[in-house]
């Protein structure tokens, strides 16, 4: 096997204390709010699904998803150092990412909303929900976690043990899965971002389960060998309302907006009995 070996940094624990002001992620000042979302949210949306990308990619990974799922608008989150934010400094850790994200996201949390994350995208989604709760701010009605072990069992990511050659091959497969054609220069740029994202993944852990006020839906994919079924059970300790579901397909099936996933998201964003309180 060839490739460059990686040094895994010391662990980052999700601390209970949350700074009152977000840290800058671009070396100059707080990022411009509009950049955090791929597009401006619609004012007439009844609910929102904020979608967190996984390692190495940006918000465009959700390009095959519909703009509306039932009554909910899909809102892909754009992270620094990629796509239209390619010139910005990487966020470093998921803790810092959440700190920076909350302020620009807050104006759009004025109606029912859900966080969705797949694989490593679950970690910033969870950390953002945790920090919102710690600050007494609106929290997701539901956190939908797909193909990721609970934070206290992290780090868990197959990519952490791969060489550059193997990572490039994986990235090429992802591009093809999204309907694109791998380009050598694009693969090199993406690999650089992926290394930094994997460092953030390797750092993130918690000392134990951190319960959220949100409900949690845990997804496993029937043909996905990356996360054995038993590794997802620990999510039960993260909320009083946890449900588990198995959907058909492999690890990247969600990219194509499969009907069973869209139906699930429509269900979890449907109006709750008795209404919902978001101020």
TrEMBL record:
InterPro entries assigned to the protein according to its UniProt record, in alphabetical order: AB_hydrolase_fold, TEII, Thioesterase
Low complexity composition bias: residue spans: 9-24
Family annotation (Pfam families): Thioesterase (PF00975)
Family classification: Belongs to the thioesterase family.
Highest taxon listed in the record's lineage: Bacteria
GO biological process: lipid biosynthetic process
Listed name of the protein: Surfactin synthase thioesterase subunit
Region (Disordered): 1-33
Annotated ranges, domain Thioesterase: 48-261
């Amino acid at each position: 096997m060839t490739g460059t070996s990686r040094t895994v940094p010391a662990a980052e624990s999700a601390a209970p204390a949350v700074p009152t002001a977000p840290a800058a992620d671009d070396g100059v000042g707080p990022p411009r709010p509009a950049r955090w979302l791929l597009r401006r949210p619609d004012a007439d949306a009844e609910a929102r699904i904020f979608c967190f990308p996984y390692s190495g990619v940006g918000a465009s990974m959700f390009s095959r998803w519909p703009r509306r799922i039932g009554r909910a608008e899909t809102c892909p989150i754009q992270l620094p150092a990629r796509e239209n934010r390619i010139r910005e400094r990487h966020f470093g850790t998921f803790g810092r990412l959440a700190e920076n994200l909350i302020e620009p996201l807050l104006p759009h949390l004025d109606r029912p909303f859900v966080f969705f994350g797949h694989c490593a995208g679950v970690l910033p989604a969870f950390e953002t929900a945790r920090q919102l709760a710690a600050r007494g701010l609106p929290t997701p009605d539901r956190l939908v976690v797909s193909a990721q072990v609970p934070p206290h069992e992290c780090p868990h990511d197959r990519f952490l043990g791969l060489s550059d050659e193997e990572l490039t091959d994986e990235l090429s497969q992802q591009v093809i899965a999204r309907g694109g054609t791998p380009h050598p220069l694009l693969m090199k740029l993406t690999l650089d971002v992926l290394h930094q994202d994997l460092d953030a993944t390797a750092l993130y852990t918690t000392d134990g389960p951190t319960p959220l006020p949100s409900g949690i839906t845990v997804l496993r994919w029937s043909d996905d060998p990356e996360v054995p079924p038993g590794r997802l059970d620990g999510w039960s300790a993260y909320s009083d309302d946890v449900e588990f579901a198995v959907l058909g397909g492999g690890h990247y099936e969600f990219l194509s907006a499969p009907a069973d996933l869209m139906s699930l998201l429509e269900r979890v964003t449907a109006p709750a009995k008795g209404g919902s309180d978001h101020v």
